[in-house]
């Protein structure tokens, strides 16, 4: 079976925000999509969207979905033991792995670069427990795939946003903050640009390939928030220092690292370009989509 990026048969392990976006794109291209969820209600919602739902704890159903797939995308975050998807799929796949495996990783593996540029070949230096776990799971997948001769690609993602999940929603809900950390800079990416990068890779698989999929304009988060508030005609949210207890632990983790993540390799090797090169185009697209 060959992978057709035009109309793939895609299995997503982890049918969450990114996983569903990728599954929808497979369907839009005339292919088939299945996605896992441990939650019966989410499986019902997946089915309603035309995505074949799979209970990942049902080994028989998961094995069948894997056997029918030409491509498999892993979006589950690591747990304390490593990668839940690697544990679930390895005993089922035997020598029947799909022709394209994508692992959704995180730019957290790079740690802090004091605002400098970082590239895929640079040594990893995760500053958080989550980043260190992610680096270990990447290694597990890369080593395992090399040993088994699989076409595995790793995609390192910064914080991503899209419809229903962006600063626009936080501003409208009144819980956005201008979090201040002097000199802080990082990338973000619109979810549609991740999906286009994944499909570009399916068309040009490279075993062991590691790609940063990021926007072109690393920017501090308070600049993005202030721009969006002005664009929406809403008051500027209150300023808080990044160390303020009001800033959640999850949010604070974003501020530990300051870096500019290069997307040059994905552009050169995959012929990929972000449709939304900065937050401005990406947020405008969300606003346009929601307009009546
Ligand atoms: N969001 C960001 O800004 C960002 C940035 C960089 C990297 N990432 C990474 O990118 C990936 C996708 O992100 P996302 O925002 O799409 O995540 P998400 O919406 O939370 O989707 C991930 C899905 O994985 C499933 N899952 C989690 N743990 C599992 C387990 N132990 N066994 C089986 N399934 C499990 C969950 O599905 P059920 O609970 O329905 O089974 C969940 O819906 C994640 O690994 C995330 O850490 C995210």
Secondary structure elements and pairings:
Elements: E1 9-13, H1 17-28, E2 32-36, H2 40-48, E3 52-54, H3 59-68, E4 71-74, H4 84-93, E5 100-106, E6 117-118, H5 129-148, E7 152-157, E8 159-161, H6 167-173, E9 178-180, E10 188-190, H7 191-203, E11 209-212, H8 221-232, E12 239-241, H9 249-256, E13 260-261, H10 264-270, H11 279-290
Helix pairs in contact: 1-7, 3-4
The structure holds NADP nicotinamide-adenine-dinucleotide phosphate.
NADP nicotinamide-adenine-dinucleotide phosphate binds next to helix 1, strand 5 and strand 8.
Name a few traits of the molecule:
two-stranded parallel ribbon; binds NADP nicotinamide-adenine-dinucleotide phosphate; seven-stranded parallel beta sheet; 292 residues; Rossmann fold; single chain
